[in-house]
Amino acid sequence: MSTPELVTVTVDDREIRIPKGTGLIETALACGVEIPVFCYEPRLGAPVGACRMCLCEVEGMPKLQAACTMTAQDALVLRTAQTSEKAAEGQRAILEFILLNHPLDCPDCDKGGECPLQDLTFRWGPGNTRMHFPKRTFDKPIPISPVISLDRERCILCYRCTRFSEGVAEDMQLVARNRGAQSIIATFEDEPYRAHFSGNVTELCPVGALLPATYRFRARPWEIDNVPTVCGLCPVGCNVWATTREGKVARILSRNHPEVDDGWLCDKGRFTFDHLRADDRIKQPLKRVRRRGFDPVAWEEAAEEAARGLGEAEGSVVVAFSGGETNEQAGALARLARQGLGSNAAIVPDDLDPAVDGFRAPLAAIRDAEVCVVLGDEPVVDRAPVVDLWLRAARRAGADVITIHPAGSIGVSPGSAAHVARSLAEPGTAPPEFRELADQLRDTQRVALVWSGDDHDRGRRAAALAAALGLGEGSGLYVLPRTPNGRGVSSAWRAAGEGRGEEPPEDGEIGALIVSGDEAGYDPRVARLSERARFVLTTAMFMGDHTLWSHLVLPGTSYLERDGTVVNLEGRAQRQRRAVDPPFPDELEFFAEVGERLGLPVSPRPDEPSPALQAELPPRSRPGALSEPAPPPSPNGTGPGLELVTYRSLFSGPGVERVEPLAFQRPRAELELSFADADDRGISTGDAVLVVGADGVGRELTARVNRRLRAGVVRVADEHADGFARHVEVGKV
Amino acid sequence: MAKGPRQLLLEHADERDLTKLSEYEAVGGYESLRKALDMEPGAIVEELLASNIRGRGGAGFPMGRKASFLPKPDQATKPIYLTVNADESEPGTFKDREIMFRVPHALIEGAVITCYAIGAETAFIYLRGEYYTEFEIMRAALEEAQKAGYVGAAVAGSGASVTIVIHRGAGAYICGEETALLESLEGKRGQPRSKPPFPAISGVYASPTLINNVETVATVPDIIELGGAEYAKLGVENSAGTRVFSLSGNVVRGGNYELELGTPLRSLIYDIGGGIPDGRELKAVIPGGSSVPVLAANEVDAPLDFDSMANLGTFLGSGAVIVIDDRACMVQLGLRVAQFYMHESCGKCTPCREGTRWMVQILKKLEEGRAEQGELDLLLNVCDRILGNCLCPLGDAAAMPVASYVAKFRDEYQRHIEEGGCPFGAESSLAGVMAPVDQHHAHMRSQIEVPVHEFA
């Protein structure tokens, strides 16, 4: 990139040399002058100049100008309210107008104390009001969704929320209705605001108009602590503040990391914390005493029992990881198993080939890419939500975003990602559309390659494709792990022994199985292993099918209760801080106890991470010799009926299921089908359809016609696809 | 030089039905188009510059200069568009309606010539939604022009191609503001954009766009026919040509009159309009539509041109001359005007949205005789705080006239306070046209149905 041209701008008699085109708000800030703003928010796209709070005097212009809409030009002379009486009067006028119909109910407004309107009023506002007429009133609060309430009287119509909905998340659900003094914010057609990123509007709102319903009347700013941590619910690793009050998590806010999340947070990350206090949370060790019964036992006894069960396994131990553990937890478990118990077998959910680190780049590089290619059957927004926002930002910036999956811009059959990757890497014999795309990618300097699926050996395949395309600086490869810290867990496992170790034995009895966390318990492979294990030790937050076959169940913790480090999908190590204390010793402490009994020292606390940890993405690893990935598996065999592709919805999992306000976000019992297939069967959106698998299992779902879906393919969220085979018959009820 | 009726635009419109293509052609219609197609596009823009024609919509910006801000067609990376602002909604203004009613082909011909001059292949006519009859007339005329080959591919046998799209608005005054018009045209909520970028650089669909008023565009054929230099000789310095004035209010013969610019206001009201009816006295005149400051009776000798009006602290605006006689209460007038702008404020920027409502509240209290002395100063200060602080001119359009009513008729405002009521009462000629504020609010409230979500 060329060096930007510097221009000289004068702000309140202070001269500054600054790149041409810098916004005047930022220019003034660089001079040490704060210009107050409400509607201005650079992350929402072009400035709108609606609130007028930033009125300033610009030499040579007769009228006051909205500084937010202007940029640094050479010889521009700006006078803010600090030195211009005219600008100060303009600002006083605007603040008076903003407050005119505002209810001034700060004492019982949840925003009070952390409210930009309150702050700016204290600094620039009038001490009295000249408004002696009845203020505008609206019914309030309006629940625009179960997690957001809207107070239209407090709203100052800065349009930040509608701009977010329209220009960032692109869900188009928030709109302004009516006009003039009767303008209101509303959801389109008054439908609930059901979108992956809806909660961000509560943070963008500069007043107490849009508030998280889950935080209403829960806390005041002077009695809370904001703990900086990293979300542990998906592999993006968004930086967050966990707001706690009296030892309980009360809310989660984004904490802008410009390379990772740009200050956005998905609704799962924002609202999933009440499960920490769910009624069915396991709070003490449980030991199986009957065929299907557990008795609580003391921690001492649990540690004894664990040491006994693991010791008696005589090396035949399998560890099943969730991928949500911290690096330290995973490391302790891995050392316990590999060094202490002499085992080498594990189920590691995201064992990506380290070759992907040869093409690592910050997530923010997606926004600057010229071409983005998304491969794989799992919707990006459900697997790593913020990546979807980066892709949208890229598209708005003019990038070509090519999605290759059953509902993509290039429609392919389910499970074809590996084939497509090979076609792009070796386009010689590929179909023409892939040859053209491969040519385009080779000719493009900045490419973002995103792989969102569980295809076998995808790390190596993706790295091979990146190498074949010659992805250099400015480009990036993003293989989305299935689990939040899958990359950290697999590194920890590898580091504790010789490489990736062994796959669990295919048959025969095993001595002990350690199931680490609820997510591991949901893995069908783990369920099968448990049937063959003499001793099953499970750590879990909640009882479920998976805990029933355990011999010893230990209470598990949430990421909000842990100290440690995690590695996100970029390969960036970040620090999680304990926001609230777990009501019992955490996993690390317990495994230290067990380790002591087995004669293996395990530290009960994570080491203090290095201070540089969160700042930098490690440099790319040197690309080593890349072994040829195995030939891609043949695509799913054809069968009668329609091919079923399932996906894991963002709003699923044991945590979300226990957060009542998020129930409306859970995936609907819906079958997506292509226009052609719907047309053939006379089905339209909203119809009840019967879905029958090859094994005769039938289930009624609601049809939704997805015009982007490839003909011959139907799509259902995992939790509604139980018992379906690869191919299904679909008919109208 | 005595100025008076000089018809260019509405010439022959009294004798013939110029909505018919054959009639329009019979009086030389579409000859200017043929002449223009023989010229270089750049030369047409030169003629527009030479004509000194200023925009007829209200702001009075020179049309030729506006056109010259557009990128040259060979340098443009996106298509260039012409957009004709036919969203005539300023109270008192009904001249574009007359033009579309009676000489629709002049607008079409002007649009085609302008497109050719600026290298545009598409013109949008953004037509006020309430103008349904005008829409029907324009549509019929456009169809005739298309059939005759004046619009479409290969205009009049030349290599130029021009498509005209008539887009009906949905009833918002704000969409007469050029950038709000563009938003609405794109299918969005009609709210002004922040400028820059100006439409000439990034207008409709982020492409270079020339936006001109109906009357401006419809005058283009006359300019081509006369030649720019000849046209510039009409009118007075800085105000070239003729304008169609909409005369209304307390005057005997209201209507649209095409006059040379520089015609004295008195001559329009008395000689042409027949003076004040019922033997009443002239009290005030609004010279350019409801958004401009008022003139007192002793100021009507001024000529109707841009500079003379500016010297009196007002504007020629949209050319709507509203005559007010001595029966009208100026507080009621202020309230009525403020009500209009409150109702039409789009709600985007703070001072206009909040300020216009506050103005109405204060004016209503004044009119009802409940106001205290300080509230008159408050009203002026509110106007002052709106003025110049808004995103678009709508806020100014409310603040400027109301402030001028107080400035020029302060006694009357004072009497409302001192006498505790309106000295005119029901006798005021405006009493019947007031929008009942409370009813208006009740109506607006009834539009807002509060959703009650059931989250089962």
The ordered H/E elements of chain B are HHHHEHHEHEHEHHEEEEHEEHEHHHHHH
By secondary-structure content and strand pairing, the structural class of chain A works out as alpha/beta
What's the helix count of chain B? 18
- What is the radius of gyration of chain B computed over CA atoms, rounded to a whole number of angstroms? 23 Å
CATH class membership of the largest domain in chain A: Alpha Beta
Q: What summary fits the major beta sheet of chain B?
A: 5 strands, mixed
- The CA-CA distance between the termini of chain A, in Å, is 60 Å
Shape of chain B, please? globular
pLDDT average of chain A, as an integer?
A: 93
CATH class of the largest domain in chain B: Alpha Beta
As a percent range, the share of helical residues of chain A equals 10-25%
Number of domains of chain A: 5
Query: Could you tell me the strand content of chain B as a percent range?
Result: 5-15%
Describe the structure.
The complex is a heterodimer of chains A (733) and B (456). Chain A has 733 residues and is α/β, with parallel strands linked by helices. In chain A, helix 8 runs parallel beside helix 15 (486-495) and helix 12 packs across helix 13. Chain B is 42% helix and 12% strand. Chain B contains 18 helices and 11 strands. The interface between A and B is large, with 52 and 39 residues.
Give a topology summary.
The complex is a heterodimer of chains A (733) and B (456).
Chain A: E1 6-11, E2 14-19, H1 24-30, E3 55-58, E4 65-66, E5 76-79, H2 85-100, H3 116-124, E6 142-145, E7 148-150, H4 160-167, E8 174-177, E9 184-187, H5 200-204, E10 210-212, E11 225-230, E12 239-245, E13 248-254, H6 267-271, E14 286-288, E15 294-296, H7 299-311, E16 317-321, H8 327-340, E17 345-347, H9 364-367, E18 371-375, H10 380-383, H11 385-396, E19 400-405, E20 410-411, H12 417-425, H13 432-443, E21 447-451, H14 458-469, E22 476-479, H15 486-495, E23 510-516, H16 518-521, H17 524-531, E24 533-540, H18 545-548, E25 552-555, E26 564-567, E27 573-576, H19 587-597, E28 642-647, H20 654-657, E29 670-673, H21 675-681, E30 688-693, E31 698-705, E32 713-717, E33 727-732
Parallel strand pairs in A: 1-5, 16-17, 16-23, 18-19, 18-21, 19-20, 21-22, 23-24, 24-25, 28-32, 29-31
Antiparallel strand pairs in A: 1-2, 3-4, 3-5, 6-7, 7-10, 8-9, 11-12, 12-13, 14-15, 14-25, 26-27, 28-33, 29-32, 30-31, 30-33
Helix pairs in contact in A: 7-19, 8-15, 8-19, 12-13, 12-14
Chain B: H1 21-26, H2 31-37, H3 41-51, H4 63-68, E1 80-86, H5 95-102, H6 104-118, E2 120-127, H7 132-147, E3 163-168, H8 178-185, E4 209-213, H9 214-226, H10 228-232, E5 235-236, E6 239-240, E7 242-249, E8 255-260, H11 265-272, E9 282-286, E10 295-296, H12 306-311, E11 320-325, H13 330-344, H14 350-367, H15 373-386, H16 394-408, H17 410-418, H18 437-447
Helix pairs in contact in B: 2-6, 2-9, 3-6, 5-6, 6-9, 13-14, 13-16, 14-15, 14-16, 15-16, 16-17
